[in-house]
Amino acid sequence: MFQKKIILVFLGFFLSYNSYGQKKDTLAIKIKKSKFTTKKYNPLSPSKAAFYSAIFPGGGQIYNKKYWKAPIVWGAIGASIYYYTTNSNEYDRFRNAFKLRKQGLKDEFTDSNGDYIISTAGLENAQKVLRKNRDLSLLTGVLLYVLQIVEASVNAHLLQFNTDDNLSINPTISTDPMLIESPKVGLTFKYSF
């Protein structure tokens, strides 16, 4: 019963919220002032944004004047580089210990009495896990790099569209005078040319 009330409150807030199209303060330049304003179309803008992002991660976002996205890109790629180097260093550490143990020498996971702190099977398992984590970190970094290039290009494309508040979604609750107990929920789509 409590969950139904929470869902109804959430739906009430959602349906009373008006969402609108993109604001008019984009990169486009207005050529003439009239009822129908047109924007200057730059076909090279998406390719420039992609080029800047490929050369310097976050550069395309800065070119698109979406400055808040650049630190997100830097943090995401930096985190994947951090995890790659950490996992790679740990993998090398366990790999060297495993090689020394196979040659019958003392490694860093053997105490002064000659007892093993980590077994040989444990060293092998740690190598497998760390290698997998290292490879996943590398794959994540490459994917994030490619995604930020695609995002900059798509954003540059979308900035050239003439969007305003004429295209909006306005969720409403309408009541039926015959059935007052059960309100009807719906969406209103409004567009004008």
What does this structure look like?
Helix content is 53%, strand content 8%. By secondary structure, the protein is mainly α. The chain has a domain at 42-160. The chain has a three-stranded antiparallel β-sheet with strand order 1-2-3. The longest helix is centred in the last third of the chain and has 39 residues, at 120-158. The model is unreliable at 20-36 (pLDDT under 50).
Please provide a brief summary of the model.
With 193 residues, the protein is mainly α. The protein has helices at 2-15, 45-55, 59-63, 69-102, 120-158; strands at residues 19-20, 168-174, 184-190.
Question: Which short descriptors sum up this protein?
Answer:
193 residues, mainly alpha, 3-stranded antiparallel β-sheet, 5 helices, 8% strand, flat
